[in-house]
Protein backbone atom coordinates (compact mmCIF):
# COMPACT_ATOMS: atom_id res chain seq x y z
CA UNK A 1 0.00 0.00 0.00
CA UNK A 2 1.37 3.45 -0.82
CA UNK A 3 2.03 5.99 1.89
CA UNK A 4 -0.84 8.15 0.65
CA UNK A 5 -3.15 5.14 0.53
CA UNK A 6 -2.12 4.10 4.02
CA UNK A 7 -2.70 7.60 5.36
CA UNK A 8 -6.13 7.69 3.75
CA UNK A 9 -6.99 4.25 5.13
CA UNK A 10 -5.94 5.29 8.63
CA UNK A 11 -8.24 8.29 8.53
CA UNK A 12 -11.32 6.38 7.38
CA UNK A 13 -13.77 5.83 10.16
CA UNK A 14 -13.81 2.26 11.37
CA UNK A 15 -16.95 0.33 10.64
CA UNK A 16 -19.12 0.45 13.67
CA UNK A 17 -20.01 -3.00 14.82
CA UNK A 18 -23.54 -3.06 16.00
CA UNK A 19 -23.69 -4.39 19.49
CA UNK A 20 -25.49 -7.68 19.82
CA UNK A 21 -28.87 -6.91 21.36
CA UNK A 22 -29.46 -8.27 24.82
CA UNK A 23 -31.97 -11.05 25.32
CA UNK A 24 -34.35 -8.50 26.77
CA UNK A 25 -33.97 -6.28 23.68
CA UNK A 26 -34.47 -9.28 21.39
CA UNK A 27 -37.62 -10.27 23.29
CA UNK A 28 -38.88 -6.69 23.04
CA UNK A 29 -38.30 -6.66 19.26
CA UNK A 30 -40.09 -10.01 18.85
CA UNK A 31 -43.02 -8.71 20.91
CA UNK A 32 -43.22 -5.54 18.78
CA UNK A 33 -43.13 -7.60 15.57
CA UNK A 34 -45.82 -9.90 16.89
CA UNK A 35 -48.03 -6.99 17.95
CA UNK A 36 -47.62 -5.44 14.49
CA UNK A 37 -48.51 -8.77 12.87
CA UNK A 38 -51.51 -9.17 15.15
CA UNK A 39 -52.73 -5.64 14.42
CA UNK A 40 -52.43 -6.27 10.67
CA UNK A 41 -54.43 -9.51 11.00
CA UNK A 42 -57.14 -7.82 13.05
CA UNK A 43 -57.42 -5.09 10.41
CA UNK A 44 -57.62 -7.66 7.59
CA UNK A 45 -60.23 -9.65 9.49
CA UNK A 46 -62.37 -6.57 10.08
CA UNK A 47 -62.06 -5.07 6.60
CA UNK A 48 -61.12 -7.96 4.32
CA UNK A 49 -61.50 -11.69 4.12
CA UNK A 50 -61.24 -14.22 6.94
CA UNK A 51 -59.57 -16.69 4.55
CA UNK A 52 -56.56 -14.36 4.23
CA UNK A 53 -56.14 -14.29 8.00
CA UNK A 54 -56.56 -18.05 8.29
CA UNK A 55 -53.85 -18.55 5.65
CA UNK A 56 -51.54 -16.26 7.64
CA UNK A 57 -52.22 -18.20 10.85
CA UNK A 58 -51.46 -21.42 8.96
CA UNK A 59 -48.17 -19.83 7.82
CA UNK A 60 -47.42 -19.02 11.47
CA UNK A 61 -48.15 -22.63 12.36
CA UNK A 62 -45.62 -23.79 9.76
CA UNK A 63 -42.99 -21.45 11.19
CA UNK A 64 -43.64 -22.70 14.73
CA UNK A 65 -43.37 -26.29 13.53
CA UNK A 66 -40.06 -25.56 11.78
CA UNK A 67 -38.74 -24.03 14.99
CA UNK A 68 -39.79 -27.10 16.95
CA UNK A 69 -42.27 -25.28 19.15
CA UNK A 70 -44.75 -28.12 19.45
CA UNK A 71 -46.84 -26.55 22.21
CA UNK A 72 -47.41 -23.50 20.01
CA UNK A 73 -48.31 -25.79 17.08
CA UNK A 74 -50.90 -27.60 19.22
CA UNK A 75 -52.44 -24.32 20.31
CA UNK A 76 -52.53 -22.98 16.74
CA UNK A 77 -54.04 -26.25 15.48
CA UNK A 78 -56.82 -25.98 18.07
CA UNK A 79 -57.43 -22.34 17.16
CA UNK A 80 -57.42 -23.06 13.42
CA UNK A 81 -59.98 -25.83 13.88
CA UNK A 82 -62.23 -23.47 15.83
CA UNK A 83 -61.81 -20.63 13.31
CA UNK A 84 -62.37 -22.81 10.24
CA UNK A 85 -65.67 -24.01 11.73
CA UNK A 86 -66.76 -20.41 12.24
CA UNK A 87 -65.36 -18.87 9.08
CA UNK A 88 -68.83 -17.95 7.81
CA UNK A 89 -69.43 -15.93 11.00
CA UNK A 90 -66.19 -13.99 10.47
CA UNK A 91 -67.34 -12.07 7.39
CA UNK A 92 -67.08 -8.85 9.34
CA UNK A 93 -66.66 -6.50 6.37
CA UNK A 94 -69.83 -7.97 4.83
CA UNK A 95 -71.78 -7.65 8.08
CA UNK A 96 -70.52 -4.12 8.68
CA UNK A 97 -71.55 -3.12 5.16
CA UNK A 98 -75.08 -4.28 6.06
CA UNK A 99 -75.09 -2.00 9.10
CA UNK A 100 -74.38 -4.53 11.81
CA UNK A 101 -72.05 -3.37 14.59
CA UNK A 102 -68.59 -4.90 14.62
CA UNK A 103 -66.12 -4.74 17.48
CA UNK A 104 -65.74 -5.33 21.15
CA UNK A 105 -68.74 -4.12 23.09
CA UNK A 106 -70.61 -3.11 19.96
CA UNK A 107 -73.29 -5.76 20.22
CA UNK A 108 -74.30 -4.73 23.73
CA UNK A 109 -74.32 -1.07 22.79
CA UNK A 110 -76.23 -1.87 19.60
CA UNK A 111 -78.77 -3.88 21.59
CA UNK A 112 -79.23 -1.00 24.02
CA UNK A 113 -79.72 1.43 21.12
CA UNK A 114 -82.27 -0.91 19.53
CA UNK A 115 -84.11 -1.27 22.82
CA UNK A 116 -84.19 2.54 23.22
CA UNK A 117 -85.46 2.90 19.65
CA UNK A 118 -88.21 0.34 20.27
CA UNK A 119 -89.24 2.12 23.47
CA UNK A 120 -89.19 5.45 21.64
CA UNK A 121 -91.17 3.92 18.79
CA UNK A 122 -93.63 2.45 21.29
CA UNK A 123 -94.08 5.87 22.95
CA UNK A 124 -94.53 7.48 19.55
CA UNK A 125 -97.07 4.81 18.60
CA UNK A 126 -98.94 5.27 21.89
CA UNK A 127 -98.97 9.01 21.37
CA UNK A 128 -100.14 8.65 17.77
CA UNK A 129 -102.79 6.14 18.80
CA UNK A 130 -103.99 8.46 21.56
CA UNK A 131 -104.08 11.39 19.15
CA UNK A 132 -105.97 9.31 16.60
CA UNK A 133 -108.42 8.10 19.24
CA UNK A 134 -109.06 11.64 20.46
CA UNK A 135 -109.60 12.85 16.89
CA UNK A 136 -111.96 9.98 16.18
CA UNK A 137 -113.84 10.64 19.40
CA UNK A 138 -114.08 14.36 18.66
CA UNK A 139 -115.13 13.53 15.13
CA UNK A 140 -117.76 11.15 16.44
CA UNK A 141 -119.04 13.78 18.85
CA UNK A 142 -119.16 16.40 16.10
CA UNK A 143 -120.88 14.11 13.65
CA UNK A 144 -123.42 13.07 16.23
CA UNK A 145 -122.54 9.39 15.88
If you had to describe this structure to a student in words, what would you say it looks like?
The protein is mainly α and 145 residues long. It has two domains: 28-103; 106-145. Helix content is 77%, strand content 0%. The chain has six helices and no strands. 2% of the residues are buried.
Main features:
6 helices, mainly alpha, about 75% helix, single chain, elongated
Layout of strands and helices, then pairs:
Elements: H1 3-11, H2 23-47, H3 50-66, H4 70-85, H5 92-97, H6 106-143
Helix/strand/pairing category:
mainly alpha
Tell me the span between the first and last alpha carbons: 124 Å
Number of extended strands: 0
Q: Quick check: average pLDDT?
A: 75
Number of helical segments? 6
Work out the count of structural domains. Answer: 2
Report the biggest beta sheet as strand number plus sense, adding barrel if it closes.
Answer: none
Q: Low-confidence stretches at least 5 residues in length (pLDDT < 50)?
A: 137-145
H/E element order: HHHHHH
What would you call the shape?
elongated
Name the beta content range. Answer: under 5%
The amount of helix comes to over 70%
Rg on CA atoms, Å: 33 Å
Offer a quick outline of the entry.
By secondary structure, this protein is mainly α.
